[in-house]
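Amino Acid Chain and Its Fold in Token Form
===========================================
Purpose: to set a sequence beside its fold so the mapping can be learned.
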Amino acid sequence: MLSRKYHIVVFKDKQGSCRKLQLRGWVIFTLFFLMIALGAGNVILWNEYIHHSQLEKNLGMAEKTVQEQKTQLLSLSQKINALQKSLSRIHDFDSKLRVMINLDQGAGQTTSPKGGSNNENFSESYLPLYRQELLARKMHDFLHQLNVEARLEEVRQQEIVHRLKNNQDILEATPSIWPTTGWVTSPFAWRTSPFTGKREFHKGIDISAPRGTPIYAPARGKVELAGRDGSYGLSVRLQHNTSLTTRYGHMHRVAVKAGQTVTRGELIGYVGNTGRSTGPHLHYEVRLNGVPVNPKRYILN
């Protein structure tokens, strides 16, 4: 059958002529098999195309979902970081209050839980993780640690409030506000002297401000000095208690007199450029038992 010859006659319309094709059986069988194979192949390819399109669509949806989850996780981590910073500010405020009221630092402070907010930055530690289950678990653990820290801080604050009620006079006589407005141009630290070029320790902070800017007492105190004082120029020195004094140098004008008692927020003078100064500013010192200390440790605002 495969070796037999078959004739195919093709008639041309309206011409009365024809063309005859001669094919062997195996050729016809081969063509028929190829047609069936091509048809089956098209059906298989079409099914694969539909399956691939569905997979591609599902993949796109999955990638979109993952991206949304990553965005949400990043937003949550930023909120956690903000909470962490707020807790740190509260902790610093706690430390300053304890310094001001002479409350033992170690008495109210407890070591943070392992991996807590004091030692780790959440986004730096956890965001690089690619497994979202682990990331979510870490977030819950971190939030739990922050919650514990917040409760501990609440206990510390209650202790401070209790001490403040019993030490109102101490608080009123402890410097706790900025003496003037401006920006710090020279901190409490070692620096190169602008006059000698040598390295020296700056015993206070310099607050740069326009000439005539008001200067206010940061706490209740008695005016020990109100006038010229060597390189400090026009200056004021306040005695707040037996161990704590503050000094204000390079003033343009003094608004108090020696022996006068002032309260927190009362005007004591104006920013100037007198004495050993390179420009209008206030030199602000805090001394504890005669030893200069960093004024910023007492400033709460």
About this structure: The first strand starts at residue 5 and ends at 11. Confidence is low (pLDDT under 50) at residues 107-119. The CA atoms of residues 224 and 258 lie 5 Å apart. Residues 183-298 form a domain with the Glucose Permease (Domain IIA) fold (CATH 2.70.70.10).
